[in-house]
Write a structure and sequence with these properties.
By secondary structure, this protein is α/β, with parallel strands linked by helices. Among the domains are: 36 residues; 105 residues, no CATH class; 45 residues. 48% of the residues lie in helices and 8% in strands. It has 22 helices and eight strands. The strands form three sheets. Strands 1, 2, 3 and 8 form a four-stranded mixed beta sheet that branches. Helix 7 packs across helix 8, helix 14 packs antiparallel against helix 15 and helix 19 crosses helix 20. It is extended. The N and C termini lie far apart (100 Å).
Length: 498
């Protein structure tokens, strides 16, 4: 709308519409600001929301994906009767519950889902990480499935940061990744220096800081650093970060990046939101009993030599298979219903994580086909202020009351205040800093000089600062010099007078 050509076009159109009128006007007066939101947005939102509610009312199996980080996004994911996968974003909902406890989190999720009619139950599945609050929140209402990307991210995080690892539940042993952790530490310091010293513009590509809350954060940081490795010396010259750069072995850095490439590929494969990916996630299964182990080993060796092409596996459409064969056998019809539920489950909760840059409020994200995927982080985000809470009480006509034990406790007790006053009367010319030291020596109570001054002021004992001598200006110095030069031999003159 700011373009001159567009304004000229609008002016011509308006002049044609008002051909009979010859009055002059400015086109900028009738054009909206470029950032103005269309008036039809609310109408379109209400229209499509009703359509989505009608779809949700007819669903028998679905997956809810919830993620609580810096905002709340909710996505709905389900498979239709003809085995077509659909994913909808229900919305971004500000987290306005009283607290982030398990009970309030469950109530908030159920409240959001109630608007679209889905209800959590024992037949619904939840994809979540291992955060204690989320485990407790979705332990009884539904069936929980771990987020695959979260597990992979934790593995790389422990490899680069943990000095010890669990050999079992009660004992630890050395991590065994000292070389990789040393390289990772040097890379992290260099990246932090470049970004904080405003030298990023000298590089052809922006370095990426490490973040524990970002999936594959370590992989991304190290990989971009390797790409910019040859361009860094001119940026780091004459700085302490050059020592970290010289301590990095390029061959070891390449080996680490090459080793981490499959991790990034797996995370990308498990983060698809428009394709099935749960079947790519394999869980560790215990070994069979001894009675069946020989049969299992025989079958595994028997079919392991059959030639196959791995590229053909990518072309297999699981939903199309069930759509074609659901009526072939009677048992497949029952399995097809179960497959429709399972295929709706994502392998990770990254469907809603990609939307986190939109809003900056504390929220919980939900996505739908029968799974709730959730995550809690300590990222800074604004919560409800005291004014917001009081406004809600006024709207609901609730009584307002003062919270007990408000404010921070005083650093001194009444006994400490009396001791400070006693020392002040004893040493009236001493400063508050000296009084603070005397109080520390007398009873071991440490109070700052400012606190001592405030306590004495509360007891009507004001402090006075000694008046400083007047400042000698250049004129004063000049007059003193002239007087000294005139009376240079004053002792001899005084003898003559006598």
């Amino acid at each position: 709308m700011r373009g001159v050509g567009f304004q000229n076009l609008v002016k011509i159109l308006v002049e044609v519409g008002q051909f009979a009128s010859k009055s002059k006007f400015e086109v900028t007066d009738i054009l909206s600001h470029p950032t103005t939101i269309s008036k039809n947005i609310s109408r379109l939102h209400d229209k499509y929301k009703l359509q989505l509610i009608n779809i949700c009312e007819k669903l028998t199996s679905y997956c809810i994906i919830v993620d609580q980080w810096t905002e709340t996004h909710t996505a709905l994911r389900y498979v239709t009767d003809d085995f077509q996968l659909f994913t909808f974003i229900l919305g971004c909902f500000p987290y306005n519950a009283a607290s982030h406890s398990t009970q309030h989190l469950c109530e908030f999720v159920n409240k959001v889902l109630a608007e679209y009619n889905p209800v959590l139950g024992t037949t619904k599945f939840v994809v979540t990480d291992n955060e204690a609050k989320m485990l407790a929140a979705f332990r009884e209402q539904c069936c929980r499935i771990g987020c695959a990307d979260h597990y992979l991210n934790k593995q790389s995080q422990h490899a680069f940061q943990s000095e010890k690892k669990h050999s079992n539940r009660s004992t630890f042993e050395a991590g065994g990744c000292e070389l990789a952790q040393t390289v990772f530490g040097h890379v992290k310091k260099i990246v932090s220096f470049v970004r904080h010293s405003h030298k990023q513009q000298k590089l052809p590509r922006e370095l990426q800081n490490y973040s524990e809350t970002r999936f594959a954060g370590a992989i991304i940081m190290v990989d971009i650093f390797r790409e910019m490795y040859q361009n860094l010396p001119e940026v780091l010259i004459n700085s302490n970060a050059m020592e970290n750069y010289n301590a990095i072995e390029k061959d070891l850095l390449d080996d680490i990046c090459n080793f981490l490439e499959p991790f990034q590929d797996v995370i990308n494969a498990l983060s698809k939101d428009r394709q099935l990916c749960l079947h790519q996630k394999l869980t560790n299964q215990p070994q069979s009993s001894n009675s069946y182990q020989e049969i299992e080993n025989y079958l595994n060796t028997d079919y392991s030599d059959i030639p196959h092409n791995d590229d053909d596996l990518d072309d297999i459409d699981i939903l199309s298979f069930w759509q074609e064969h659901r009526h072939t056998f009677s048992q497949l019809a029952k399995l097809a219903k179960l497959a429709k539920i399972i295929c709706a489950m994502p392998a990770s909760n990254t469907i809603v994580e990609r939307l986190f840059s939109a809003a900056k409020n504390r929220t919980v994200s939900i996505s739908s086909t029968a799974t709730v995927s959730s995550e809690e982080s300590t990222c800074t985000a604004p919560k409800l202020t005291c004014i917001d809470v009081e406004e809600e009480k006024l709207k609901k006509n609730l009584p307002l009351s003062n919270t007990p034990d408000q404010g921070r406790k005083k650093a001194s007790t009444p006994i400490d205040d009396r001791n400070s006053l006693r020392l002040c009367k004893k040493y009236r010319t001493k400063s508050s800093q000296i009084l603070s030291s005397e109080l520390m020596l007398s009873n071991g109570k440490h109070l700052s000089a400012r606190t001592v001054r405030r306590r004495l002021l509360d007891m009507s004992y004001k402090s006075y600062q000694a008046k400083k001598k007047p400042l000698r200006t250049f004129a004063h110095k000049k007059q003193r010099f002239l007087f000294a030069r005139e009376h240079q031999y004053w002792s001899q003159e005084w003898n003559n007078i006598i």
